[in-house]
Structure formats: C-alpha cells, structure tokens
C-alpha cells in the first residue's frame, strides 16, 4: 500500500496548488450533491457540471503525472502496472462511483447518466494529457456549442431523454481511456532531450512532462519541432561565422543568446507569430457571431500570451544549472559578477521580444474584431507589456525555488499585468492618448524598471549555482 500511496500523491507533489484546488472542487461538488432536491433538475445539472469539469482537469493532471512515471526503467519495478491499476480504480471511485452512488441513494434525477458523463469527461481529460488532437477536438466542440447554443441545448436535452445515452457514454469513455492508456503504457525509447529554455509557445517545450522529461510527440509535433530546430541551427551558424570574422563583445553576446534561447531568433519568432496568428484567426472567426464580444479583451489576452514565456524561463534556468557550468568554463569570466552580468544581458532580450509579440497579437485581434479604438488598445498593450515583461523576468530570475512559490508568483504577475492593462485602457479613455499614455508609461515603466534594478542587483550579488535543482 505504500507504493499506491506514493503514486496517489504524485499530483500534489508535482502540481500542489492545482491539485488542492481540484480536490476542493470535488469537496464542494460533494456538499452540493447532498443539498440537491429530488425534483430540481437544474440544480442537479449544475452540481454534475462542476464534478464533470473537476474530473476533466484532475485526470489531465493524472495523465501528465502518468507520462512522467511510464518510463522504460520504471516498468521493471515489481507489480508496477498492477499498482497503477489500483490507483486508477481509486481515482475512478472518488470522482465517479462515489458521487453516482450518493446521487442514486438521494434520488437525484438522471444520476446514472450523470455518472457516465463524468466518467466520459475523465477519460477525455486522461487522453488530452497525452494527445493534443483530443484537446483540439474538445476545444472545437466548445466553439461549436458557443456558435449554436440553441442546437447544443437541444442535443443535450435529447441525450438526457434517451435511454441509450448512458451506455453510449460508458462505451465511449472505455474506448478513449483504453486508447490513451495503450499509448502511454507502451514501452519505447525516450524522446531526445532538448533545451529547457526553448520557447514554450508552439515549440517542443510545451510537450514536456511535469518532471521536465520530454514527452512523446506526434508526427505534426515532430515536424514543427524540426522546423524550429532548423531555424535555431541556422541562426547559431550565422552568429558563429560573424564572430569568427570579427570578434567583438556584441557578437559574443549574440552567440550566448543563440545558445541559451535557441527559439528566440528572428526566423523562429516570425514562424511562431504566424502559427499563433493562424490559431487565433480561426478562433476569432468562430466566435465573431457573439454580439457582446468586447474587442478590448484582445489586449488582455495578448498580454497573457506574451507573459507565458517567463514561467517556462524560470523553470528552464533551474534545469539548466548543471549545463551552465560548461558555459562558465567556456566564457572564463574575470569575476563571478561578470558571468552573472553576461546571463542578464543575454536574457533581457526577452523583454522587447515579448513586447513585440504582444503588439503583434493585439494588432491581429484588432483587425479580426474590427475594434472601434485600435490605437487605444495598441498603446495600452505596448506600454503594459514592457513593464510587465521587466517585472516577470526579474521575479522569475530571483524568485522562489519551489513549484508552489513559482506558481503563486506567476499568478500574481499575470493577474497584475492584466489588471494594469484594463486600468491603463480606462485611463487612456479618460485622459486621452497623450496624457493618459504618459501617465501609464510613467507608472508601469517606473515600476518595472524599479523591480528589474533591484532584481539585477540581487542576481549580481549571488554566486553562480551549478547544482541540479531540488525536486518540487
């Protein structure tokens, strides 16, 4: 039982905050389930929806943990598959069987169908953690449901009334789970490792397990990864050739950047913008029918997407510590502070890259949504992205070591940046573009530079660390 207990604790050890929130959602759903009147179909539907989405996200986390556990060497452990099966039964009992049994005993309407639906959502979540096309399929279904809410409601009511809905959901859940587990439990060679500092936006680093090991990729992912690898290889060769022809401090810094940030060269940035633009275009076209769509939200989403680079940077810098010892010996800096300064100079390029990406995403959203005040949105997004990028880079360089602390810092910076964007958007509307933009620039850039200066001073004071990071 000790091995089963350790396997059950994996989500809490690898994603503590998310695991606690999802378990809290299950507890709230269980409490609400006890309060459901026997004839209130709507309240029962709300409770079932909460449990279904909780099971979906929980089994996504379980799938991510399972991807990291299912390494070839772990299958040599005694009864490894059997203990995984026991943990799976316990998870299904918690999220599906116990709520369904309680609903049946309490006389909740459509209890069996609700349990089958929760099991189907759990199977989809498990499959989505290992197959991206499942995520795209579910996302597409939600888009279609939002496009034709009346039709989606009619389909849902017809399924509720049909006696074949529960067996069909059970059969579909079994099929999806079996296909997902067959791929996950298959013993095959580990994927080639790659740089932890590769850009996570549509690059390979997003397809990594929670423990940092590379996950298995499909054919499309391998093709996209090969294209990104080709751009980074060409950029490195060009930088090396220029440095050999005319050695200088500037070209030396470019070499360090190409080494540390392989997917942040101009070609890769342009390719990433094109891929994101294609996905965003499809999404915006799909939801443009909504009359209440607020175009100003595009800037907030653009800032959110731009800042997603920095949490991965913080994790990558910690994973890269043992490898950075080779860089230290190669550079042979006169002092430790000179080496730290070199890293700072190399990484600060992410600030203009993030600002450029945010402005590009915002501009694309303006074109697609036909925004009424494009200059106001662009100005607010550009100003806020610079200050938020400086702040995010600073806190992720000297921030907490543990995953829980990093998660809190990331959440605080992201929510703060989006709140400042909305405040800046309002300020530009009240004071005008010139005065409001000046005030917003003074506040955001002043705060960002202050945080960056303090973090830079602290980073230069610290000695270089080449020890592997502790787990967690």
From TrEMBL:
Domain of life: Bacteria
Secretion signal span: none
Keyword terms of this UniProt record: Membrane, Transmembrane, Transmembrane helix
Transmembrane segments: 43-64, 84-105, 111-129, 164-181, 269-287, 346-369, 375-395, 407-428, 434-452
Name of the protein described by the UniProt record: Transmembrane protein
């Amino acid at each position: 039982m000790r091995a089963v207990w350790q396997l059950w604790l994996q989500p809490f050890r690898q994603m503590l905050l998310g695991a606690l929130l999802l378990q809290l959602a299950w507890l709230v759903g269980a409490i609400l389930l006890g309060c459901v009147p026997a004839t209130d179909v709507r309240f029962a539907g709300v409770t079932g929806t909460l449990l279904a989405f909780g099971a979906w996200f929980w089994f996504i986390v379980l799938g991510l943990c399972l991807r990291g556990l299912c390494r070839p060497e772990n299958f040599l452990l005694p009864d490894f598959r059997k203990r995984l099966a026991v943990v799976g039964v316990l998870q299904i009992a918690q999220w599906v069987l116990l709520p369904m049994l309680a609903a049946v005993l309490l006389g909740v309407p459509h209890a069996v169908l609700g349990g089958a639906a929760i099991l189907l959502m759990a199977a989809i979540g498990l499959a989505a953690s290992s197959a991206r096309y499942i995520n795209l399929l579910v996302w597409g279904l939600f888009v279609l449901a939002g496009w034709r809410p009346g039709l989606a409601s009619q389909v849902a009511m017809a399924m509720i009334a049909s006696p074949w809905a529960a067996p069909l959901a059970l059969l579909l859940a079994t099929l999806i789970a079996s296909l997902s587990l067959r791929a996950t439990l298959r013993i095959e060679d580990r994927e080639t490792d790659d740089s932890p500092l590769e850009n996570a936006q549509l690059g390979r680093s997003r397809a990594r397990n929670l423990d940092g090991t590379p996950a298995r990729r499909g054919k499309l992912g391998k093709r996209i990864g090969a294209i990104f690898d080709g751009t980074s290889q060409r950029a490195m060769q060009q930088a090396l050739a220029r440095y050999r022809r005319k050695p200088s401090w500037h070209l030396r810094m470019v070499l360090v950047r190409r080494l540390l940030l392989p997917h942040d060269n101009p070609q890769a940035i342009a390719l990433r913008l094109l891929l994101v633009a294609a996905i965003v275009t499809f999404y915006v076209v799909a939801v443009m029918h909504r009359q209440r769509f607020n175009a100003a939200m595009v800037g907030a989403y653009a800032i959110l997407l731009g800042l997603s680079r920095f949490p991965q940077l913080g994790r990558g810098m910690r994973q890269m510590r043992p490898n950075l010892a080779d860089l230290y010996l190669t550079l042979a800096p006169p002092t430790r502070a000179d080496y730290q300064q070199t890293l700072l100079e190399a990484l600060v390029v992410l600030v203009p890259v993030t600002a450029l990406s945010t402005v590009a995403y915002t501009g694309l959203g303006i074109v697609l949504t036909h925004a009424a005040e494009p200059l106001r949105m662009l100005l607010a997004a550009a100003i806020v992205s610079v200050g938020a990028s400086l702040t995010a880079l600073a806190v992720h360089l000297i921030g907490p070591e543990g995953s829980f602390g990093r998660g809190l810092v990331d959440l605080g910076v992201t929510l703060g940046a989006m709140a400042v964007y909305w405040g800046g958007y309002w300020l530009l509307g009240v004071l005008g573009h010139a005065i409001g933009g000046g005030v917003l620039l003074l506040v955001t850039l002043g705060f960002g530079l202050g945080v960056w200066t303090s973090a830079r001073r602290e980073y230069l004071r610290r000695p270089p660390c080449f020890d592997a990071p502790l787990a967690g």
